[in-house]
Amino acid sequence: MPPKPRKPPPRKGSANRNLLIAAGAAAAVVVVLVGASLLLRGGDSGDDSATGGVTGIEEASALLGGIPQDRAELGSQKAKVTMIQFEDLQCPICRRYQAEGFPSVVDEYVRPGKVKLRFVGMAFIGPDSEKALLYTLAAGEQGKLWQFQDALYANQGHENSGWVTDTLLEQIAKGLGLDWAKLKKDADSAVTLQQANSMAAEANQRQIEGTPTFYVQVGNDQPYKVQPGSFDPSAFRSILDDALAS
Amino acid sequence: MSDRALRIGVAVVALAGVALAGYLTYVHYQPEALICTAGGGCETVQDSSYAELFGVPVALLGLLSYVAVLVLVAWDSELARTLAAAVALTAVGFVVYLVTLQAFVIDAWCIWCLVNDLVLVPLLAVLTVWRVRLASD
Predict the structure, then answer these.
(1) Which chain A residue's Cα is nearest to B134?
(2) How many domains does chain A contain in total?
């Protein structure tokens, strides 16, 4: 009579042991990942405004000083090409463009008079967008819309967190040498509101679904939408060189 | 539920995770693909300083984790099952942290991240743990 095969040992304990090992390893890795995430993170986008420190004033003045401005337009009126920028001042992607692409566009195309920029402000993200837009447009009455816009991006806080405070606006205004009392008055004026409404209408007419969105206009031709492959300066070079060559 | 059904379930969830984490990795490297839209918080979350770890996008870590689970589910041994459960449980712990960040630190919600954090990762953990336990029955 053949020997009766031995019954395999129960594996319940094995499964429990495996689960304990898996859970223990997972817990250890999570502790390392979370610890590393907290220790290694860089500056957060809203930190500057949260601490009350205003930055970007000198940078905005250096980048844009001496370039002609006519309300929402930056650059020579004789420039052959206009790049239209649809933006929401609360949009973090717009801030990224402002930091990565905008400076080289200004230095290489706007300052030499080849291209002018037109700011079209939108306020679809929330109440902070609207307040930021009205004050930025009001800064245009004193010829510094673009410096104000650039400095606001440098101090951008989290969306709809109430970061566009009177204190921040006043610090930026005074840092840029603007008349704060006039700026406040202009931001509340019917003229500024009308300007904001016109921009909203233009964005609506072009069915702008998000920001930043860019259009290019050659002379008086119809503006056409462009999509840079990245915010790298080279992406804007190819767009603007094509427009200038056409 | 049979091991075969669980195995297929793990593979399906991991494939969905590859698609989602792949998309989030793509937009991390292509910011112009992610424009700011009304009410959207994805750009804020993706643009936050927590979006990378050791210089690697968190979304890419997620993508690699899902790929690892797919490899382990194809390998299919006791060790592979245990490792898959370990990866999934690690993901659960980390997404608890990520959801907490979105709620209390970043103050913005990324809907695609939440689909991953609240649906795919917990589902993957349940299925992979279930497979380990099923091996004992």
Answers:
(1) A15
(2) 2
Q: Domain B3-134: give its CATH code.
A: 1.20.1440.130
CA B61 to CA A7: how far, in whole Å? 44
ipTM attached to this prediction: 0.84
- Closest residue to B31, CB basis, from A11, A43, A96: A96
A–B interface: beta-carbon pairs under 8 A: 131
Looking at the structure, tell me whether residues A35 and A60 fall in a common domain.
no
Decide which of A196 and B105 is more confident.
A196
pLDDT at A104: 97
A16 in B contact zone (CB under 8 Å): yes
A26·B86 Cβ contact <8 A: yes
- Specify whether A189 is located in the same domain as A234: yes
Contact yes or no for A230 and B31 at CB 8 A:
yes
CB contact under 8 A, B31 and A93: yes
pLDDT digits (tens, 9 = 90+) for A181-225: 999 999 999 999 999 999 999 999 999 988 999 999 999 999 999
| Pairing between β-strand A213-218 and β-strand A81-88 as defined by DSSP bridges | antiparallel
Q: How far off is chain A from B93, nearest CA to CA, in Å? A: 6
Contacts of A130 (CB under 8 A, 6+ apart): A123, A196
Residue predicted with more confidence, B66 or B112: B66
Residue A87 lies in a domain: yes
A20 touches chain B (CB under 8 A): no
Element (H, E) at A202: helix A190-205
